Amino acid sequence: QKLDVQNGSALALLVVNDFETDDNCSVNLDCGFTVCPLKNDWLNEANGLHDDIDWRVNNGTTASTQTGPTSDHTTGNNSGKYIYLEASSCDNSTAHLISPCIDLTGETNARLSYWYHMRGSEQGSLHVDILHNEEWINDYISVVSGEQGNAWINNIADLSTFSGGIINIRFRGTTGPGRRSDMALDDIMIGSPPASAFSYTGTLCYNDTITFTDQSTGSADTYEWLFGSGASMSSANTAGPHKVVYATGGPKEIKLITTNSFGPDTLTEIIEIHGPGKLASYFYSDNGDGVTFNFVNNNTEATTYFWDFGDGNTSNEISPTHTYDQDGTYEVMAIVSNDCLTDTVIRTVTALANGIGPISTSSVFRIYPNPVKGNLNVRVSGIRGQGVARIFDVHGKLVLSRSINLSPDQENYTIPATTLTAGIYLLTLETNGQKFSGRFGVL
């Protein structure tokens, strides 16, 4: 198809035509004899050469009843302008409206937005074509045909396929088989939806104020904020800034939805609000020698750490390893903090270098078999009197306590261990001011 070539430069986004500055055209029922020139480099193609009739600029109602709009879309009153096809005596006639050249260089999310009105029982069809690389892509947008009711209807089309190129848009309208097929167009725009973005300031702590600031690019007409659970305000509908206080800790889903004539854009971000609650938590294990322990921090929210191992030594590591010089029971304190709170936890650790506590030279203390599967045997020589045997797990928790009557005629004693799960344990035996201890394993 031959093209009407016009002088002018390709237009960068945003491109808008609401026809308010165009001159009204004739409403005579003379089909292609009415020629309607347009402004701003928009073109009605030549009648009889490329099409049959022109899109006409008008305001108020059209000449025919029961078809066409009663006002434009831009202003919503009968003084606002739009373009339409006069269908009376122009059955099955086609009109081509050509846009200026539109430069999509550097655009990645361009869209076409337009409003159409197709009231009438004999309504025809509306087509939208794209000229790209000197070739027309007909019906790039789904064809609309038939009665659509007495309302302006919006359609938005994605033009990202043509990013980096130059295009023209053609609105190809065809009247129906009778006069009740006046169709109209208004508010044709080529642009991009906004790109939602936001920032926030303040400490991410419960009961502290956090300020959310819109950083979106592009022109947004509406804003919708959602601040997540526990927020002092669950939502907002202005750009802000918005000040929010959280009554609870944990992850919060922040969502900002910005919208303009080309559609919405949504940004979702998860932020972690600290507290309230426990911050300090750790577990430990020994490396098998009875005096070296690995302390593992359980919390990822802390930013500073202080460990006191109960023997005069300290550490600021996240998960330190410590070796005790002497046997004994130590209270290990962990103090952790972040911008919101400080928390402390204390646990007991028993260090045993040889598996045997202080034993008099006249006594013998032995645990067998080691490791054990079933009952545990203890041999005590040269001791008499009432004793108490206690078994502790590797975390210092008492798991079994049993009284033993130590007799000079007996050296071997049985302690039930069938209820113990597999692991390493500490056995202590106290009698007459003496204390014996040893480590053993359970299979």
Outline the secondary-structure elements.
Blueprint: E1 11-12, E2 15-17, E3 43-44, E4 56-59, E5 81-84, E6 94-98, E7 102-103, E8 111-118, E9 125-132, E10 135-145, E11 153-158, E12 166-174, E13 183-191, E14 198-201, E15 209-214, E16 222-226, E17 235-236, E18 242-245, E19 250-260, E20 263-273, E21 282-286, E22 292-297, E23 304-308, E24 314-315, E25 321-323, E26 328-337, E27 342-351, E28 364-368, E29 376-381, E30 385-393, E31 398-406, E32 412-415, E33 423-431, E34 434-442
Descriptive report:
This protein is 0% helix and 47% strand. The chain has no helices and 34 strands. The strands form eight sheets. Strands 1, 3, 6, 7, 9, 10 and 12 form a seven-stranded mixed β-sheet that branches. The protein is rod-shaped, with a radius of gyration of 42 Å.
A few lines on this structure:
By secondary structure, the chain is mainly beta. The chain contains no helices and 34 strands. Helix content is 0%, strand content 47%.
Structural class: mainly beta
| Unreliably modeled segments | 354-363
Q: How much helicity do the residues have?
A: under 10%
Shape: rod-shaped
Number of helices: 0
Mean pLDDT score: 89
CA gyration radius, whole angstroms: 42 Å
Strand percentage:
over 45%
Key features?
single chain, 443 residues, mainly beta, 7-stranded mixed beta sheet, 6-stranded antiparallel beta sheet
